[in-house]
């Protein structure tokens, strides 16, 4: 069933980076609440630490990438707002 976890991780990461890519390409954050990225960053940081503590490589990688997308989103918030 590990494949299911990896499938979910890929879908989540691709979806989040698609939004970040769209915002970067359009050079604006139309319809995106900036708090989304801040909340995502805090939650992802907590989930990454938790994932490390339980030794789940799927969740460590996924949450680290979600944290990265949130950090890029926060950068875009400050750049384009």
Describe the structure in your own words.
This protein is mainly alpha-helical and 81 residues long. Helices cover 86% and strands 0% of the residues. It is built from 3 helices and no strands. The chain has helices at residues 2-26, 34-54, 57-80. It is globular and about 40 Å long.
Descriptive keywords:
81 residues, 3 helices, 86% helix, 0% strand
Low-confidence runs (pLDDT<50, min 5 residues)? none
Whole-number average pLDDT? 93
Q: Strand percentage, roughly?
A: under 5%
Helix share bin: over 70%
Number of strands: 0
**Rg calc:** 13 Å
Write the H/E string, N to C.
Answer: HHH
- Please count the helical segments: 3
Globally, the shape reads globular
- Overall structural class, as computed from helix and strand content, comes to mainly alpha
Distance between the termini: 43 Å
Main sheet, how many strands, which sense, barrel? none
């Amino acid at each position: 069933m590990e494949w299911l976890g990896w499938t979910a991780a890929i879908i989540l990461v691709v979806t989040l980076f698609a939004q970040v890519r769209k915002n970067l390409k359009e050079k604006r954050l139309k319809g995106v609440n900036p708090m989304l990225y801040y909340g995502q960053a805090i939650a992802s940081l907590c989930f990454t630490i938790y994932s490390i503590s339980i030794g789940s490589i799927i969740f460590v990688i996924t949450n680290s990438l979600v944290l990265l997308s949130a950090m890029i989103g926060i950068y875009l918030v400050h750049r384009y707002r």
